[in-house]
Design brief:
Layout lengths: L4 E5 H12 L9 E9 L2 E10 L1 E3 L4 E3 L1 H14 L4 E8 L5 H11 L6 E5 L10 E10 L5 E8 L1 E4 L4 H9 L12 H28 L6 H13 L5 H38 L1
Length: 270
């Protein structure tokens, strides 16, 4: 056993799929950097970003300077986050994977390699995580072998909103509605409906129409106590502050995508 586990949230996975969908037609797969941290034998992946690369049957090239520069910018945003590995679309690991992995081994001691089957060859999105081990003779022919390691996909409560939205698109031929305001209204309406169900059950318990449940009562108390006691002005100021942060992030994301597109075109020309 390697003794290393990997844990990553849904967001890097969505980034990988988005990167694959936006790839150039000439690229059979896409690659990128995984950012996160190490803690007691577990690699926690928190962010990912695409790295421009070109791959043919004869050779492979990647923009190493871009990978290092964006990695440094990510560290400035979050000083506790650094390069922990790389990802690629598809489940095939070839000789070029060893070359790319060698670059990331210079960035971190034990890089993890995440593969995501974006083509759904087995009718599902197969995900594998690997680390490499050196093989060969010292001062002679050397290489590496990729060993699978266990991984866990985690999801925050906020992620459930996105997952529920995408699940609702199954079998729906109409154009999905991505209006943020309407999505918030829909979420609030569903939350109000759930609160009404809970209040109806509490009233039945108080009136003796339904039996009481101590465990359910404790869970409801924890939910009530977790709600912050804030006035309207404080909530408004918080929303305005988060909105400014969101606009700044969207602007930086736009600049990054434009830089990616320019780098890809330059690589094609060269």
């Amino acid at each position: 056993s390697s003794g290393i586990n990997a844990e990553w949230p849904l967001r890097p996975g969505f980034n990988i799929v988005d990167n694959y969908e936006r790839r150039n037609d000439n690229n059979k797969r896409v690659i990128g950097t995984l950012m996160g941290r190490y803690d007691k034998g577990t690699v926690y992946v928190t962010e990912s970003f695409a790295v421009p690369h070109q791959e043919t049957e004869e050779e492979v090239s990647m923009d190493m300077e871009y990978a290092m520069r964006i990695g440094e910018l990510q560290k400035k945003v979050n000083t506790s986050m650094y390069t922990v590995g790389w990802y690629s679309s598809g489940i095939i690991i070839n000789e070029y994977s060893s070359l790319i992995h060698a670059f990331y081994k210079c960035q971190c001691p034990t890089p993890v390699h995440l593969t995501v089957d974006t083509q759904l060859k087995e009718q599902k999105m197969k995900i594998n995580t690997h680390i490499s081990s050196q093989i060969g003779v010292k001062n002679g022919t050397e290489g590496c072998i990729f060993t699978p390691v266990s991984h866990t996909i985690t999801g925050a409560e906020a992620d459930q909103v996105s997952l529920k939205f995408f699940q609702g698109l199954r079998g729906n031929k109409k154009t999905p509605n991505f209006n943020d305001q309407e999505q918030i209204i829909t979420s609030c309406s569903e939350m109000i409906a759930q609160i009404n169900i809970v209040m109806g059950h509490v009233k039945k318990v108080l009136s003796g129409e339904a039996p009481s449940d101590k465990e359910l009562g404790r869970q409801l108390m924890e939910v009530v106590q977790s709600i912050p006691n804030l006035d309207g002005d404080t909530i408004t100021n918080m929303l305005n502050s988060h909105m400014q942060d969101l606009l700044a992030v969207e602007y930086l994301t736009y600049l990054t995508r434009q830089q990616l597109a320019i780098s890809a075109r330059i690589n094609q020309i060269l």
